[in-house]
Design brief:
single chain; eight-stranded mixed sheet; two-stranded antiparallel sheet
């Protein structure tokens, strides 16, 4: 989703937001460092297959999607990370890996880790590796109606390095 399209969508619902520009970065941790935002405050979108259906799992940059937690919560038979070639075409207006967590615009369900709901705001990629958008969690939840549940584990220090 281009920043323009995301802005138009948010504006159409009278959502207040802030755009944060930064140097090119490809990981949530690098983006957090460049934007001077704690990793726990940046939401990353991970594409997961639940019984062969693509969905978005949204967790903070300092977390991993716990596929077993998601499997139990959804009562699925198989839950696995999707390969880029399985979802790249679903987001023609986004840089790969920089999809905003707006599954409703791409025909995908959204699962959000409950820890994200503890903050007043959520910050996420705006479709490129150069911009973030910050919105109120309340607005994010109202627009997307994500399924909020525990679906993440904190990265171990060795993994975060």
């Amino acid at each position: 989703m281009s920043l323009l399209r995301l802005r138009q969508f948010l504006d159409s619902y009278n959502i207040k937001y802030v755009v944060i520009s930064h140097s090119v970065a490809y990981t949530a941790e690098a983006i957090a460092a460049l934007a001077h935002i704690p990793g726990r405050e940046i939401a990353k979108t991970v594409i997961v297959k639940i019984d062969d259906t693509l969905v978005m799992a949204v967790v903070s940059a300092s977390q991993h999607v716990d596929l077993e937690l998601l499997k139990v919560a959804t009562k699925a038979k198989v839950v696995q990370l999707a390969a880029e070639n399985e979802f790249r075409g679903r987001f023609p207006d986004c840089e790969t890996g920089a999809m905003p967590p707006f599954g409703n615009l791409y025909g995908m369900s959204v699962f959000a880790d409950e820890s994200l709901s503890h903050d007043k705001e959520i910050v996420f990629n705006a479709g490129s590796h150069r911009e973030l958008v910050r919105v109120a969690w309340e607005d994010f939840e109202r627009l997307l109606e994500p399924r909020v549940l525990r679906l993440a584990t904190v990265k171990r220090a060795a993994e975060a390095a």
